[in-house]
Amino acid sequence: MLDLTVVVPLFNEEESLPELCAWVDRVCQSEGIAYEMVLVDDGSTDGSWDVLKGLSKDNKAITAVQFRRNQGKSEALHVGFARAKGSVVITMDADLQDNPKEIYPLIDELNKGYDVVSGWKKSRKDPFEKKVASKIFNFFVRIFSGLIIHDSNCGIKVFKREVTQMLTLYGGRHRYIPLLAHQKKFSISEIVVD
């Protein structure tokens, strides 16, 4: 049985995909983690699908899924979760903003007894407007849900597989994954990530 499934939704990321897959492979190999990657192409209009076909041919740990048209990140994650075979599932963005070196610390935190561990980009490198919008969004999530985390919408998260099987994602609900898991009584933690 696989230890880990890395689910990566993507849209027009042909340039970053080879580096991302090689980076994940290096990290998992160095930590002795048996893994698979499920990369979901959300209707890319560049050469992402061709790159994915080549990567999955060269590395049997990679599964590529293609949407014919752009359906959104929530739908891509939903399909990735349905394909996941690992007992632990991690989500990452394809644009190399999420560092695969965070995989082991996230899993280590999960092993402390949590069901979900969300990344917290404490030192965001985003434009000012995006930082402010994120702070406002997370403030309201904390106020109205009682879920005390700093960064609900960080792309890198790790889950016990059972959590991903209980989530129904569509129409932008990926922004609320920790909240949705919290509502289903799963335990949530977060750690600072790059």
Can you walk through the features of this model?
- This protein is an alpha/beta fold.
- Helices cover 39% and strands 20% of the residues.
- It has seven helices and seven strands, in the order E-H-E-H-E-H-E-H-E-H-E-H-H-E.
- It has helices spanning 17-31, 48-58, 73-83, 103-110, 128-145, 161-166, 177-183; strands at 4-10, 35-42, 62-67, 88-91, 116-120, 157-160, 188-192.
- Strands 3-2-1-4-6-5-7 form a seven-stranded mixed sheet, sandwiched between helices.
- The radius of gyration is 16 Å and the shape is globular.
- The two termini are 30 Å apart.
Task: Please specify the SSE layout and strand pairing.
Layout: E1 4-10, H1 17-31, E2 35-42, H2 48-58, E3 62-67, H3 73-83, E4 88-91, H4 103-110, E5 116-120, H5 128-145, E6 157-160, H6 161-166, H7 177-183, E7 188-192
Which tags fit this structure?
single chain, globular, seven-stranded mixed sheet, 194 residues, 20% strand, alpha/beta, 7 helices
Q: What is the CA-CA span between the terminal residues?
A: 30 Å
Number of alpha- plus pi-helical segments: 7
Share in helix: 25-40%
Note the main sheet: 7 strands, mixed
Total beta strands: 7
Q: Please identify the structural class as seen in this structure.
A: alpha/beta
* Beta-strand residue percentage: 15-25%
Order of helices and strands: EHEHEHEHEHEHHE
Rg estimate, integer Å: 16 Å
Backbone shape: globular
Sequence of strands across the biggest β-sheet = 3-2-1-4-6-5-7
Mean pLDDT reading: 89
Low confidence ranges: none
